[in-house]
Structures are given as structure tokens and as C-alpha cells.
TrEMBL record:
EC number: 3.6.5.4
Organism: Georgenia faecalis
Keywords associated with the record: Cell membrane, Cytoplasm, GTP-binding, Hydrolase, Membrane, Nucleotide-binding, Receptor, Transmembrane, Transmembrane helix
Keyword Membrane tagged: yes
Protein name as annotated: Signal recognition particle receptor FtsY
Length: 387
């Protein structure tokens, strides 16, 4: 009995094993990829099977693409900018239109002369320059013995040009120098002004002017009161490949940032370092004194070549008072007039130069990145007379 039981059990076991083998014979095994350490996995191909086949697909890892270098902008050449902007100035100004309207009346009466004088005063030329101009105009007309509008216009042009003073040195002092230690140093430009004049934007546009002249430039973001100012300057610099030295914290000492910028520029061998500063009201003594400190600290690395005062042309005589205070504190060497288009206040050019004995060196005539141009006296006078 026992032998028969074992025979039956053995037969069942054989049948079960055979059936199991039959069931598994039609199932295709999926090859498993080898297990690799994490650091090696990204460097190896991944083995997989296409469903329903025995083929192995090898998927190579995607190559990491290096980020593309930003395309740098090439600023517009400086030569000819004033000529390009001349038409814009002529269209937007009312000084020239007003003067020509009076002159076109033919024989000038006393009332016409008074209207010319009023027009010049409203254009912010100033009382002194206007009185001188009127006296010379009347004298010239008497000498010529004519009231011909074109003849008077020619005289007006000559006298206005004399007031604007084409003989003033308007060149930017941006050539590198050599210190007392015999080591080269960059030219340094300190940019100052009150709030809202477009100072930081002007610094960015000035960098483009210098880059267009093939100069190596570095910017210093010494307006540490507004993080947005440093960010804005950084954006301007990136567009033309100009590095920016800035503080990593808001409210840092602006003099320290200016010092670091000039030091970095000296070590990098750049041609020009331009330092932006926070806008400040001319009646805030502490802030004005801070400008003097910034200039002194900068001078420890290299002499300050230029101190450019940015003025809003629309402020008129108020801008003139601002200019005087800044000139007393930091010895302004040049004026940058912004927003000159769209205003009849072009006479501020004459007034500020007469008051400070400092030339207007650059003018802003639009919002475009290259709408900053070296000031040209003849082009300016012709533009306002064409208006």
C-alpha cells in the first residue's frame, strides 16, 4: 500500500512540473540593466527592450549644452549722433518757431523786439545773456540798415552761437594715465545729480558712448540706497559686455563701492571707470558732503578725471541753482543735459555755462539707448532755429 501511494504522488509531481515548464516556456524574459552606482549611471547607456522583441535599444544620454553666450549689442557710432538728433530737437522745441514767427513779419516794431526778448527769457537763457543778446541784435540791425527777416535771422544765429560758446572744450577726459608710482591707471568719471534727472540711465548710455569708441569700460554702482539702481546698471552693462562693481547689500558705504570699482578697473587694465551715485537734493548738507567723500576716496586709487553733473533741461532756472551747489562741493567739470527734447528750455545751455564756466558736454535727446550725444554748439543753434 505504501509503495502504491508513493508511486501515485511521484506521478502527480512529474505532471505538475511538466505543466509548469510548459506554461513558462512562452514567456519572454526581460533583460534587466545592470545596477550601477549613481555617479556612473548618467555616463552609461540604458539598456531596454522593445516590447514584443528581443532587441536591445541603447539610449545615449543627452549631451549637456553649454549656455549660449549672450549676443552683445554694438552701440551706434558717436560721430553723427548730434546730426541725427538735430531734427528731433528742431521738431520738439518752440524757441526757434517762436523767434522765426516774429522775424518773418518783416519790419520789426518795438513790440516785436519786446516779444523776442520775452521769448528768450522764457527759454531760460537768463536775464544777463538775454539783455546782451538783445543789445547786439539791435545794434547789428541798425548797422545793416535792414529789417529783412533773413538778415536778422543770420545775425541772431551768430549771436546765439557766440552765447553758446563753440570755443569751450567739450571733450571728455577719458584717456588712461600713469600715477606717481609709475603704474598705469584708468580715467575715472564720477556722475552726480539730483533725484529724477535720469542719472543711472545716463551712466548706462555713457558706457555705450565709450564702448562705441572702442574703450574698455567698467561701471561702479555707488547708488547703494536703491537696489534697483544697481540692477538697472547691471542690465546696461550686460548689453554691451561692460562689468559692474556693486555691493551685495543695500545701504553699503557708497565711497567704499566707488573705491572698489576704481581698484578693480586698475587691476583689470580698463580705460575708463564710470561711477554712478545716488540722487540727492542740493539742500541736504550731509548727502552733499558724502559726494565730496566719494570723490576723495576714489582719488586714492586714481585721480578723478571728470565730474559730470546730470541736469534735467525741463527744470530751467531751478536746475541752475542745483548746478551751483554741486559745483561747489565736487568741482563739476562738465554738464549732461537730459530731456532736452520736448521742452522750450534749451536756453539752460547758455545759462548754466555762463553761471558755472563749465561746458555742456553731452545731451540726451530721447529714450533710445544711443540717444546720448556729444554736444555740438553749431548743430544745437541750427536745430533750435529750424524749429
Amino acid at each position: 500500500m505504501t509503495d502504491q501511494l508513493w508511486a501515485i504522488l511521484s506521478a502527480v509531481l512529474v505532471i505538475f512540473v511538466a505543466g509548469g515548464l510548459a506554461l513558462t516556456s512562452g514567456v519572454r524574459r526581460r533583460r534587466q540593466p545592470p545596477t550601477l552606482p549613481p555617479e556612473e549611471r548618467s555616463a552609461q547607456a540604458i539598456d531596454t527592450l522593445t516590447p514584443g522583441t528581443d532587441e536591445v535599444l541603447v539610449e545615449a544620454p543627452e549631451e549637456e549644452q553649454a549656455p549660449a553666450a549672450p549676443t552683445l549689442e554694438r552701440p551706434e557710432p558717436v560721430a553723427g549722433r548730434m546730426t541725427r538728433l538735430r531734427a528731433r530737437l528742431a521738431r520738439s522745441g518752440t524757441l526757434g518757431r517762436s523767434l522765426l514767427s516774429i522775424l518773418s513779419r518783416g519790419s520789426l516794431t518795438e513790440a516785436d523786439w519786446e516779444e523776442i526778448e520775452e521769448t528768450l527769457l522764457l527759454a531760460d537763457i537768463g536775464i544777463g545773456p538775454t539783455t546782451e543778446l538783445m543789445d547786439r541784435l539791435r545794434t547789428q540791425v541798425r548797422v545793416l540798415g535792414t529789417d529783412d527777416p533773413q538778415a536778422v535771422r543770420d545775425v541772431l544765429r551768430a549771436e546765439l552761437l557766440a552765447l553758446v560758446d563753440p570755443g569751450m572744450d567739450r571733450s571728455l577726459r577719458v584717456s588712461p594715465g600713469v600715477g606717481d608710482d609709475g603704474e598705469p591707471h584708468p580715467a575715472t568719471v564720477l556722475v552726480v545729480g539730483v533725484n529724477g534727472t535720469g542719472k543711472t540711465t545716463t551712466v548706462g548710455k555713457l558706457a555705450r558712448v565709450l564702448v562705441a569708441e572702442d574703450r574698455e569700460v567698467l561701471l561702479g554702482a555707488a547708488d547703494t540706497f536703491r537696489a534697483a539702481a544697481a540692477d538697472q546698471l547691471q542690465t546696461w552693462g550686460e548689453r554691451v559686455g561692460v562689468p559692474v562693481v556693486r555691493s551685495d547689500r543695500e545701504g553699503a558705504d557708497p565711497a567704499a563701492v566707488a573705491f572698489d570699482a576704481v581698484k578693480a578697473g586698475r587691476e583689470a587694465g580698463v580705460d575708463v571707470v564710470v561711477v554712478d551715485t545716488a540722487g540727492r537734493l542740493q539742500n541736504k548738507t550731509d548727502l552733499m558732503n558724502e559726494l565730496g567723500k566719494i570723490k576723495r576716496i576714489m582719488s586714492r586709487q586714481a585721480p578723478v578725471s571728470e565730474v559730470l553733473l546730470v541736469l534735467d533741461a525741463t527744470t530751467g532756472q531751478n536746475g541752475l541753482r542745483q548746478a551751483q551747489v554741486f559745483a561747489d562741493v565736487v568741482d563739476v567739470t562738465g554738464i549732461v543735459l537730459t530731456k532736452l527734447d520736448g521742452t522750450a528750455k534749451g536756453g539752460i545751455v547758455v545759462a548754466v555755462q555762463r553761471e558755472l564756466g563749465v561746458p555742456v558736454k553731452l545731451i540726451g535727446l530721447g529714450e533710445g539707448p544711443d540717444d546720448l550725444a556729444p554736444f555740438d554748439a553749431a548743430e544745437f543753434v541750427d536745430a533750435i532755429l529750424e524749429g
